[in-house]
Amino acid sequence: MSWFDIPSLIEVLPHYGFVAKRELEKIPIFGAAARGVGVIYIDRENRKAAFGAYEEAAKNIAQGNPVLVYPEGTRGATYALRPFKKGPFVLAIASQAPIVPVVIHGTIEVNPRDEFRASPGTVHVHLLAPIPTDGLTYADREVLADTVRERMAACLSTIYGVTPSMIAGEGRGPRAEPLSAPASS
User: Fold this and answer.
1) Helices 87-95 and 47-62: crossing angle, nearest 10°?
2) Fewest C-beta atoms under 10 Å: which of 34, 78, 130, 137?
3) How far apart are CA 133 and CA 140, in angstroms?
4) What fold characterizes domain 5-160?
């Protein structure tokens, strides 16, 4: 992932709010401007406050305002998937809103992690098939996360030859059956 993921998504999906780490709110001008356009800040160090932010996001979703969440929670230096946080899936289940997995490729070449410079390049944004959450409960959050991860991994592998380092169910024993809905790119 790269700092260019957000501008790339804004170009493709211009009317969405974002969930972002609270540290970004402290950046002069950016923090206030981002909140003004619908960014919901989450304190990743304070679990109770984080769930409060997700409640705010759920209210936005209920009012018809879609919210983008990065389930990995941080940027990586490669396109391999990183571990997913559970909060975004709890949010989707609580709001009973479908999840549309998004795969972004090309932003690392445009702006590598830990570098300020940007270079010209092409960024591809793939909106995958929606995954319904109707009828899911809190107990389904890991299966939902695994399903999203599997869809994203399949896209990365099929189109770009990326072998994601994270394997669904890793460290949790046998995984449950995935949720149904065809993958697409």
Assistant:
1) 40
2) 137
3) 9
4) Glycerol-3-phosphate (1)-acyltransferase (3.40.1130)
